[in-house]
Amino acid sequence: MIYGITLILLSIIAVPSLILSKKPNAKELLEKVEPYQGWIGIVFCFWGIWGLVTAVLHIGWLTSAPIWWITLAAGSLVEACLGFLLGFPLINKLFLSGNEKAREKAVRIREKVAPKQGKLGILGIIVGAWMIAASFLFTIA
């Protein structure tokens, strides 16, 4: 359930234009979060990567709880991508400043994914809501 909640929160940060069109008073809250957006992105990127690692480590769930495993893997992938997009400037500054090839590759990846950030954010909200529902429907003992 925590993955679903965090994915929804990250998605809300990732699609501010969509939120502002629905609730104009949310602008102040989004402006308060903006200075921390890079750090939030890094944390969620690693959280999403950890979720993918968890999914791989529990590949046996494919036989006992395939819907939950696919949900966990999909949610973690969306979370890692959104985290990467939001934290890219800080990731670039902190981790890739010494390696020019890695920096160029990261820039190419971001250029491909950045135009889809809004759609990815909406997908994140949907997948996050499903993750919360699935955590109640498909418990793993």
The number of domains: 1
Low-pLDDT runs: none
Count of extended strands: 0
The proportion of strand residues reads under 5%
Bin the helical content.
over 70%
What is the radius of gyration computed over CA atoms, rounded to a whole number of angstroms?
16 Å
Q: Which class of secondary structure composition applies to the elements?
A: mainly alpha
What does the average pLDDT come to? Answer: 83
Q: Could you give the order of the helices and strands?
A: HHHHHHHH
Number of helices: 8
Give the biggest sheet. Answer: none
The first-to-last residue Cα distance is: 15 Å
Transmembrane segments: 37-60, 67-91, 120-140
Keywords: Membrane, Transmembrane, Transmembrane helix
Would you mind describing this structure in some detail?
With 141 residues, the chain is an all-alpha fold. The protein has eight helices and no strands. The mean pLDDT is 83. The chain is 82% helix and 0% strand. The chain has one domain (1-139). It starts with a helix and ends with a helix. Keywords: Membrane, Transmembrane, Transmembrane helix. The chain crosses the membrane at residues 37-60, 67-91, 120-140.
Note the main attributes of this structure.
mainly alpha; globular
What's the layout of helices and strands?
Layout: H1 2-14, H2 16-22, H3 27-33, H4 37-57, H5 61-64, H6 66-94, H7 100-113, H8 117-137
Helix pairs in contact: 1-4, 1-6, 1-8, 4-6, 6-7, 6-8
Summarize the structure.
The protein is mostly helical and 141 residues long. It has 8 helices and no strands.
